[in-house]
């Protein structure tokens, strides 16, 4: 665990050093849980968004996109339940004066119990070697069974407390499990209280009577209130989907783990409207397709898993998270939810407008059910960054830090480097840059030795480096170096575009899905 924490610190430092993510307002000592994306970070982030957007709107002829406003009528948030129920259970430690989410404290404690089980299994595996039967050991070992029984009992109690919104029992669980404050190490806890996460502000002047409005805590409601506009103007028939990428805002009291939990973040959401009664079938299909989307990137497949919700939101009849193993454990990067017809029914009730869908096949009107896929851009960014980061020891005692970014997502696709800054090599290198830059993000590099230039490009995840030397002027060939293998081959300048395109094009990813 300590090694993983150390690795995560290095990733955070690397993100700043190489222009991926900066603390916001840093010259003013920063602003808690708010970050800015640098020159390489914004390119990586935009490529992630483009991959998602194209996979939704190009590969599905029944999904279209919108861009709804951040400010919306405040009654929307009353109808959606956010005004009354968008809360986190918070608890304070009197000694450290630090505030925590009670549910996260308990979840972390359960994770530690699971770690104890895995340590027992790992020790036995080391002791017995190839003859070790892991399944039998988990079913029969007394220590494993004891820990599992404790974990299961705690998990069941915790789920009941969350489902029943039982704040007293959440605190009692923390006391019974002797959970301590990570800062002070004491168990001097306050009661658990609910805290609403929405930011509010005022629209209009005081003289005219200002109206309280909210920064949206999610992008989904902008889709719901526009669904009938899209359906009618696009002549859409069920089933159909509406996709949106946009900023959302939550006043997270316990914001932590770099860009994993922020107060200003970006979401990629798609709401898929279906006939009532067909929602669970579509839920299963979207659950499978969304995991396929993640795995198409070629990251470590073993780092993905499903987590089915035991506590369902008030609007859902099925919910699953796609979790990715970060350096700080498995964490949600995407949620797939069967939201029933709750949202549309609520907006119809609170607006007083008829927003039912007329089904020409059934010759009747009804309120559609909805399947939601919702992915955090920033969390996706972090999962890509963490899984790509590697410190490599090379032959001869040398080392390098490399980002094995999926090539279509890399901020820079290729770097062109003259071997020396004379003899017409810079001019030839510039000529190649000017030819490639219309299709690929291309860097020109001439400072320092060629080895140092390679290392800089490795650190930002550039898939290809192109070296222009004296032979280039003679026969029109260059040295093409591949990032991951560091293999160097001699290729014709005329073939560069085709070679690079096959590796870095988003089309290659989309074809895996299609």
Question: What does the model show?
Answer:
Helix content is 40%, strand content 24%. The chain has 514 residues and is an alpha+beta fold. Among the domains are: 88-195, Herpes Virus-1 (2-Layer Sandwich); 405-513, Rossmann fold, CATH 3.40.50. The protein is globular and about 75 Å long.
In short:
It contains 18 helices and 23 strands. The chain is of the alpha+beta class and 514 residues long.
The CATH architecture of the domain at 405-513 can be given as 3-Layer(aba) Sandwich
Outline the low-pLDDT stretches: none
CATH topological fold name of the domain at 405-513:
Rossmann fold
Query: At the fourth CATH level, what is the homologous superfamily of the domain at 405-513?
Result: Anticodon-binding domain
Quickly give the structural class.
alpha+beta
Look at the structure and give the mean pLDDT. Answer: 89
Radius of gyration: 26 Å
How many DSSP E strands?
23
How are the strands of the biggest sheet laid out side by side?
Answer: 3-9-10-16-13-12-11
Question: Which percent bin holds the helix content?
Answer: 40-55%
Query: How much strand content do the residues show?
Result: 15-25%
**Helix segment tally:** 18
Assembly type of the shown chains? Answer: single chain
Largest sheet: 7 strands, mixed
Overall CATH class of the domain at 405-513: Alpha Beta
- Shape verdict: globular
Q: What is the end-to-end distance?
A: 39 Å
